[in-house]
Amino acid sequence: MSPLALLALLAAVEPTVPQYDIESLRVRYTQYAQTGLGYQSAAGPPGKPGSEWLRVEQPQAEITARLGERVTERVWIPVDIVTAASPDHSRYGKPYDAVDTVTTASRSTPSATLDTFTTYRADRATDLTMRAGFHIEEPFESWIVGVGASRSFAEDNTVVGVSANQILDWFDRFDLDGNRHGRATRSTTNLNVDVTQVLSPTTLANVAYGGTLQAGELGNTWQSVMLDGGARGDERLPGHRFRHAAAARVAQWLPWDGALTLAYRIYLDSWGIAAHSAEGALAQRVLPGVVLRASYRFHVQSAPGFFTTAAAPNGTGFRTSDSDLGPFHAQTFGGAVVVDLPVARHAHDLHVDIGFERYVRSDSLRVDVSTCGLGFRF
Length: 378
Prior knowledge:
Elements: H1 3-13, E1 20-35, E2 37-38, E3 50-51, E4 54-67, E5 71-84, E6 108-123, E7 126-137, E8 140-153, E9 158-174, E10 180-200, E11 203-216, E12 224-226, E13 232-234, E14 240-254, E15 258-269, E16 274-287, E17 290-301, E18 328-342, E19 349-361, E20 366-377
Antiparallel strand pairs: 1-4, 1-20, 2-3, 4-5, 5-6, 6-7, 7-8, 8-9, 9-10, 10-11, 11-14, 12-13, 14-15, 15-16, 16-17, 17-18, 18-19, 19-20
């Protein structure tokens, strides 16, 4: 066979490359500003809780594209610029040579994540999904892979979904004096199932369950515990943690061009923590393309048996002073303005939203979250 004939044959059997179309492009900027005191922080007077001051600047981008008739690809890239004064012991006259007791990363550090989510439409009622992601910061790296499937029944009035995710974290191990002791690992295996049901032409309900098994080093290795007498010791956590969460949500269309969403979530884990969350959100269209949103969330949780604010210096069991693991109740108040406008030529519409949330916790922690998003749908 001549070279020209061979090229003609290859061209004839070469598969057609599916068309690659950008469906949407979104960018967002979010700022987290945290204040408060916690016993796990040494950034305070001896024998007293320390500062939990933290600020995060997070720009992010999301691209959704369609490859042919069956494949949809979503790529999400958030970048965090973290400034955390709470672990910076040098601000409080501690006798350490380094900038802080751990690493300069605990003072200010950038981090980035690449998260991809691929959906394959097997048939009209079945979607298969695959997730792959990578996160990096000083001194921490994380990998995630996941698979899932969803199928609709009863003329699409019922949708059942299942998913599984595996996360591996790899990070430096430090002691309270900032000395590095090799690397530590943590494994997180997560399984989820959810059912969405159309209850009426104006009502939608969803129930979901997620189970998670964590194993390995479950702390950050440098977090401290308050001891009797005002000194500080290392945090000691179990090597395994089983976590269970179940949630129910109902969305109701309102006849005055609004929507109400109510949700409840219960959480239990093998450390003895129990938590309950109730949430409500109201969306109201005030002008064509303009929607106002308001939300409220109440959360209450108990502490594990090894939570303490004054551990025995010679104790050998598990112990933590982490305020996130302690007993507290919290409230979140939020609001947003959402604008969707038609645009000409290259895009179908322009999406703009501006929002604010305030998180208030009974143990003095406060977080203000400001966000602004911009997106095009093509």
